[in-house]
Structures are given as structure tokens and as C-alpha cells.
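Quick one: structure for this chain?
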Amino acid sequence: MPASGSLLRVGIAITTYNRRDQLCRQIERIRRFTTGAYELVICDDGSTDGTPQALRGLGEAVIAGVNRGIAWNKNRGIFYLMALMGCDVAILLDDDMLPEETAWQARWVEGALRWGHVNFIAPGLVPGVDAAACTAAAPGAVARLLGSCIAFSRYPWSLVGYMDTRFGRYGHEHTEFSNRFLRNGFGGVIREGAREPAHYYYVISGAISLVAGTSSGTTADIEANAAIWRQIIAERAHTYRAPWRNDTERLEFSAEMRLAIRERGLPVPCQSEDFLFF
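Got it. Here's what it folds into:
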């Protein structure tokens, strides 16, 4: 659904991998329960189960590429919504998140506008935290994040940018992303501890539920990304990230974006074949 004519441009990006049927159910829920104007884009990370073909039959914006992992795939959605569509608020959904109520997105938009950045809290995820009480006006504050639904507004995002593409397939990329928002003064609190400051991130339940399912991530994936997370902590690099880290990644990312906007019938700037960039 186009967001033209709306004072506030809201974008929703779904990231998916080999969950075609579940994804189609999720899209149906989004169409049914989302009110007002919004941009929707689905980012497919190299699915082999017919997901891209099914999506194009639904008429939604799709960015499909080879499997690069969660950080790269979420960057596809962030770039499309924020850099290309000019959204004021972006909501990033994993493909196992289902809206439960009409105007579900309003809670996430409010949370993003109030705090700059909010994450999802699931019942029972954090002992002692009542997920039902975590609202946009009064979010919970937790040290552990799930990453299944993330929302942020435009100004904080302009300071933080994208997920770090050093992260591979699965694990920790969403926490590092949220950590940069927090370090820039948005989406949580930093409390002084005996050894080092403790980070607490704002979370809401947001009229959305997590569907039980099997993850494609492995223990090895998590351990590999944990090593990268420790490296980034040691660097103390809380600054803006581009959606690529070198020219090779930049060219690959640009090619994906050009294909996606061509498929949507949007104008593509003229670029030489050997020097693609945004």
C-alpha cells in the first residue's frame, strides 16, 4: 500500500528465509490488521522453497538475493524503507511475527517516535518482566533482546545507520544494532555497574505474537557472531554503519537495490556498469 498523502510515512520490512507458507500467512495478517498508509517490502535471503515466486504473485515489493545472513538481509529492508522510500518510522519483522489486533503498527510507531528505538518482548523471555505491561508509553527495560521485531524513527536512525555486515548468518547482530541506538541516547538506559555500565533496552509487546518454529540458525553461527560481537565491543565503535564494508559489498548491495526498484516500476538513476553506487 503506498504511503503517499500521509503526513507520517510508515514502513514495514519482513526478512525471510525458507518459510513460504508462514510468510504468506504473515502478509495476510499485515494486510488485514494494518491501518492507514504504509510501505511494505519483503527481503528474501536466498530461499529455495519458492518464496520469491510466491511473493511476486502477491504484488508486494521484494528484494531477493543470495544468502548473506540476517544483518545483510535486514539492511536490504532498512535501505529500501529509509533511503529509497523516505519513511519516518521503520518496523523490521522476522517472518515468525504475527500481528494480532487492528492498528497493531500504531503501538510500534508510537514507541519509535517516543524513544527513537524499541524492541519486542515475548512472554516469559525475561524473568520478572511482565510482557503485557510493556507499552509504548511505558516500555520495559531489559538486558537481553530477541530481535524479532524492531522499530525506530528517522533521526536516531540517521546517527546509527545499518547493521554491521561483519556478522554472518545468525546471532547478536540485532543487539549490536540496538546498542548503537542506546549509545547515541535512544531506546533505553545505561546504568553504572560495579565492573562496567549495564545496557537496558526498551521493549514493548506491541499487539504482535511470536510463532513457534524451527530456526535455521545453528550453535556454530551464534558462536561465530559472538566472537565478532566481542571484537566490536573491544573497538568501542558506536558510530554510523553503512550497509556495506567495502567496494565489493557496495556493488553487490547496489545491484540488489537496482533490481528491486526496477521491479516496482520506480525510476533508476543512470549508472555506468562498472561503477554502481548510491
